[in-house]
Amino acid sequence: MITRLVLLAAFGLGISTSTVGAIEPIKTVASFSILADITKQIGGDRVSVDTLVGPEEDAHVYDPTPRDAVKIAVAKLVVINGLGFEGWIDRLIKLSAGAPKVTIASDGIVSHQTTIEGHERTDPHAWQDLRNVQIYARNIAESLIQIDPDHETLYRANLARYTEELATLDQDIRSAISAIPAERRKIVTTHDAFGYFAQAYGIEMIAPQGVSTEAEASAKDVARIIRQVKSEKIPAVFLENVSDHRLAERIATESGARMGGKLYSDALSKENAPAGTYIAMMKTNIRELTKALMP
Amino acid sequence: MTTPSDLYDLVIGPFAEFAFMRRGLVGVLALSLGAGPIGVFLMLRRMSLVGDAMAHAILPGAALGYLVAGLSLGFMTAGGLIAGFVVALLAGLVTRVTVLKEDAALASFYLISLAGGVVLVSLRGSNVDLLHVLFGSVLALDDPTLLMLGASASISLVVLAVLFRPLVLECVDPLFLRTVGKSGSVTHLGFLALVVLNLVAGFHALGTLLSVGLMMLPAFAARFWSATLEGMMAVATLVGIMSGCLGIILSYHLGTPTGPTIILCAGAIYLVSILIGRRNGLLIRFLPRAHLSA
Amino acid sequence: MRNRSNAITVRDLTLGYDRHPAVHHLDGCFAAGSLTAIIGPNGAGKSTLLKALAGTLPPLSGSVSFEGSKAKIAYLPQSADIDHDFPISVEDLVTTGLWQKTGPFGAFSQHDRTTVLEALDRVGLTGFEARILGTLSGGQLQRVLFARLMVQGADIILIDEPFAAIDTKTVRDLMHLVRHWHGEGRTILAVLHDMALVEEYFPDCLMLAREPVAWGKTSDVLTADHLAQARAMIEANDPHADLCERAA
């Protein structure tokens, strides 16, 4: 008698969990805000996305917490960028007992080398080229389909729509830039994250030597960057990362360049600000660029 | 052999080529005019550490400015000034009216002020390093900042000239001053107000290190070159200007951060003064010289 | 007999710190033009009395009054308060004595400068005008302070223990100066420890041991009985003292 009741209960439980499993969204963890947004675009209501490095946070200096390990442990899908962007993620995934599916969003893109802090590395900021993000979206869609094949149609539809949006934006960016006279397509920026953008869309990104975020500037560095901007006739400087805003202004004034606005490189902004989604972020960036570079 | 044109390239050229270099020099000049004499008085009154204390005391004022108007430099500077004045006033009052001496009174209020500032900043939520935002760089002096430095220097010189006699007497023989006149309190507070003005103007334009350093180190060096008050003030101003010139040029050629370089130059001049200063310099003391007949 | 007015009148004066009396119910007056020594054991309240007369210490009870509303008072405290390291010249320090005349902003006339130089000459310090304070010996500094007293040109002069650790020659010279001021008709009070000096130079004397022991001509005041009495009256502050019951 007891045995039959237990079996009945287990059966009932089994059915309910599977039905619950069918309704409950797929627990997903994205390593940073941009990936989280792309994942939501593809997965829609079918995914519930947790982000490790949130909006306006810095992935380069991110220190994972025990809570992050818990998030990964209960996740079905983990989306990471790869290309060495998340140096801290491997350990977390290894420690996780849940064995989630790990998707490297950048699988399949063409990467290039760059110098980061004096070392030759693979540049991980591939999302700055919209065509790469089409690949990101496809990789994520494939993973979702593998985990949840019942909703393949939904995922494919979202992917198609999103790819279309990306393609349109890609075109818009190219038109905007072609409207800028060729000799004006260069900026000085402290960001080292725009390599893919530069390559894809033809804006030269020049790094100011020495004038950085942390260290206090020297007269030599300031003189050098002013000379550089003047001699190469660089139309705009984007230095909002420089710790002293006034120093950035002085450099701009004295070199005759325009002060550029804020460019988003590694993270989305908070929701109410102009770069709450990936597409909004790229639109903001191109808007700031054209504003600064158009004669 | 360095030709005159080499010398030009080395020393004058950079200033000729870059406006920010010229502005930096003018800024340091203006600051030295006010800070030099004030630093001498601070040193003679054994208040040499006041500058550092003041840097922390102005935090709640800047914090209030931040709470009211966000990252507005104008509001934050004004708030800082007010906080500095209030702390100086309260410290002066406590010194005069209670048994606590100047150092204890000032320390008490700067500690309270600093703690209050930290709490105020946390109220807004974000982890902004307010003081870092507030303090500027000698390489980034825009027009309003230069004007402020100039105004601060002018006000300081005028007030010092007016308050000179009471200030001196208040330093030398405060009891005598109390028995012959009533200007003691006003003088004391007026002097503290000048200190706050110069410090806050200096912080805003040049950062804490440069502001306090340029006020005190030249005064310490002046001790070894002059025995009179007027002489010390003149030497201090001169040393400040020299440190500025030397520091900016060195920062230009060597690529070292400008503010600390200027202070290191001032420090070097100070160390050299200890050794070879005409008054009380160490070498002078140890080198045998014929004594006078009377 | 000359009708002598009283330069300073003290009525039932009680002075003290933290409500413990240092001077207890002092009553009397200092005649105009008098030269009075104030003596007594340590802790007798002598310096405290001068502080009150100079106006820097408010009374716990009783009052101090001066003849004439514009009594000019010069006060020389025990030297501890002067910052010896301050880079001020002898001439400048003596010149501050003119403060009551010129105020903090008034200009100095040629006459003023002459006054200062004459005062320096009087104390035997001609040639010391440019010397910085820190280079002076104890005796020289005391002379400078007396020169400043002179320059103040006050009617009432209060001097507190001016001769502690000062060389004999300086003491003699400065006492001659005091006598000269006395001859000019000024009222002078001096706190002293040296009984020989008191006997030699001071016609009047007030012996204080928190309460007045004796007040009058020096020869009457300086007796063995009075000295013994004074010594007996000085004890430490009683921490459990009751409120003073004596009628005002």
Characterization of this structure:
The complex is a heterotrimer of chains A (295), B (294) and C (248). Chain A contains 10 helices and 10 strands. By secondary structure, chain A is of the alpha/beta class. Chain A folds into 2 domains: 2-171, Rossmann fold, CATH 3.40.50; 180-293, Nitrogenase molybdenum iron protein domain (Rossmann fold). Chain B has one domain (4-282): ABC transporter involved in vitamin B12 uptake, BtuC, CATH 1.10.3470.10. Chain B is built from 14 helices and no strands. Chain B has helices at 4-17, 19-44, 50-57, 59-69, 73-97, 102-123, 130-134, 143-172, 174-180, 184-206, 208-222, 229-254, 258-276, 282-286. Chain C is 34% helix and 25% strand. Chain C is built from 9 helices and 9 strands. Chain C has helices at 46-54, 90-95, 99-102, 110-122, 138-152, 168-183, 195-201, 218-221, 224-233; strands at 6-17, 20-31, 35-39, 61-66, 73-76, 156-160, 187-191, 204-209, 211-217. In chain C, strands 5-6-7-3-8-9 form a 6-stranded mixed β-sheet, sandwiched between helices. In chain C, helix 4 (110-122) crosses helix 5 (138-152). The longest helix of chain C has 16 residues, at 168-183. The two termini of chain C are 33 Å apart. Classes of the chains: A alpha/beta (295), B mainly alpha (294), C alpha/beta (248). The interface between B and C is medium-sized, with 26 and 25 residues.
Short description:
The complex is a heterotrimer of chains A (295), B (294) and C (248). Chain B is mainly alpha-helical and 294 residues long.
* Fourth CATH level, the homologous superfamily of the largest domain in chain C: P-loop containing nucleotide triphosphate hydrolases
Write down the CATH topology of the largest domain in chain C: Rossmann fold
Q: How far apart are the termini of chain C?
A: 33 Å
Task: Summarize the amount of helix of chain B as a percent range.
Answer: over 70%
What is the domain total for the residues of chain C?
2
How far apart, in Å, are the first and last alpha carbons of chain B? 49 Å
| Order of helix and strand elements from N to C terminus of chain C | EEEHEEHHHHEHEHEEHH
The level-1 CATH class of chain B: Mainly Alpha
Q: Main sheet of chain C?
A: 6 strands, mixed
What series of H and E elements makes up the topology of chain B? HHHHHHHHHHHHHH
